């Protein structure tokens, strides 16, 4: 009998929003260990907000989120910090501190969370920079790097503590297609060589099919998950025309548009 593996992340009956405004409700899904899981949906449907809830930055209006079995919603501040130590996050712009060198940026989590000596930290920083093909760039300032290099430096910082769980918000936004494909390869390397579990918010269709094992598609109209599964399967077999259109380059066909209206009226 197959061994039952505990999900890395469990999202249960989750409702999220700001103030009394509900963005998404009744969200239920798991992220399994070692998978790349995509959060998709139209602009403003609440993808980044969901990610921020999962990493414990916001409190949900309702429901629970468990990371490796531990609720990040009901955790005390100390417990939350302990859970947060186990994962790495990169934000949209790479979010490096502009007044620090690349190496100093990557060293930050190591200085904050480990008792490593400066020499050990320097070794670890160079190892992580090499991993993202930025070996030798430690002394550069973020402003001296290209957009793609800054994103990779952000990734190196997110990986400084060797987390098993990584979160990326729009990793390839604003990058040219080649740089974006490099970043995709890097994400797959994290999964395949280090067994990392990765949650990614993305718009890029190429990326979705290249890196995501499964996706959750958030619908802005119904305010909940429209589809959950492997992106190619959803594109080819979903009964929801919006889901098929979103995942294909065709856009909505006219008969599907009529279908969507009917569904909304229902
Ligand atoms: N701190 C905040 N306070 C109030 N409203 C917010 C806040 N952050 C985001 N919003 C609003 O919540 C909605 C969803 O935002 P969010 O960034 O989660 O969407 P998204 O799906 O990630 O969008 P995009 O694809 O455009 O980045 C938007 O209408 C946004 O203006």
TrEMBL record:
Keywords: ATP-binding, Nucleotide-binding, Transport
Domain spans labelled ABC transporter: 9-247
Record carries keyword ATP-binding: yes
Family matches, as SUPFAM superfamilies: P-loop containing nucleoside triphosphate hydrolases (SSF52540)
PROSITE patterns per the UniProt record, alphabetical: ABC_TRANSPORTER_1 (PS00211), ABC_TRANSPORTER_2 (PS50893)
Gene3D superfamilies the UniProt entry points to: P-loop containing nucleotide triphosphate hydrolases
GO MF annotations, alphabetized: ATP binding; ATP hydrolysis activity
Lineage top rank: taxon: Bacteria
PANTHER family: PROTEIN TRIGALACTOSYLDIACYLGLYCEROL 3, CHLOROPLASTIC (PTHR43023:SF3)
Protein name (record): ATP-binding cassette domain-containing protein
Species assigned in the record: Victivallis vadensis
């Amino acid at each position: 009998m197959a061994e039952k593996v505990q999900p890395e992340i469990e999202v249960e009956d989750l409702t999220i929003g700001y103030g009394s405004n509900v963005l998404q409700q009744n969200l239920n899904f798991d992220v399994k260990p070692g998978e790349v899981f995509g959060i998709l949906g139209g602009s403003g449907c609440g993808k980044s907000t969901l990610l921020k809830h999962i990493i414990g930055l916001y409190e949900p209006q309702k429901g629970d989120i468990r990371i490796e079995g531990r609720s990040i919603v009901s955790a005390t501040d100390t417990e939350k910090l302990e859970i947060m130590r186990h994962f790495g996050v990169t934000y949209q712009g790479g979010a490096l501190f502009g007044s620090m060198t690349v190496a100093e940026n990557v060293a930050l989590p190591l200085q904050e969370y480990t008792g490593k000596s400066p020499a050990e930290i320097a070794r670890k920083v160079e190892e992580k920079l090499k991993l993202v093909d930025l070996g030798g760039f430690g002394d550069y300032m973020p402003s001296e790097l290209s957009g793609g290099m800054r994103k990779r430096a952000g990734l190196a910082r997110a990986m400084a503590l060797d987390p098993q769980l990584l979160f990326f918000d729009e990793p390839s936004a604003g990058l040219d297609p080649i740089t974006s494909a490099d970043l995709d390869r890097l994400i797959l390397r994290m999964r395949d060589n280090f067994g990392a579990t990765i949650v990614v918010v993305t718009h890029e269709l190429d990326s979705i099919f290249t890196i995501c094992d499964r996706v959750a598609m958030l619908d802005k109209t119904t305010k909940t998950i429209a589809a959950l599964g492997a992106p190619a399967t959803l594109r080819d077999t979903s009964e929801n025309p919006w889901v098929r259109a979103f995942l294909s380059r065709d856009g909505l066909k006219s008969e599907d548009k009529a279908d969507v209206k009917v569904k909304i009226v229902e």
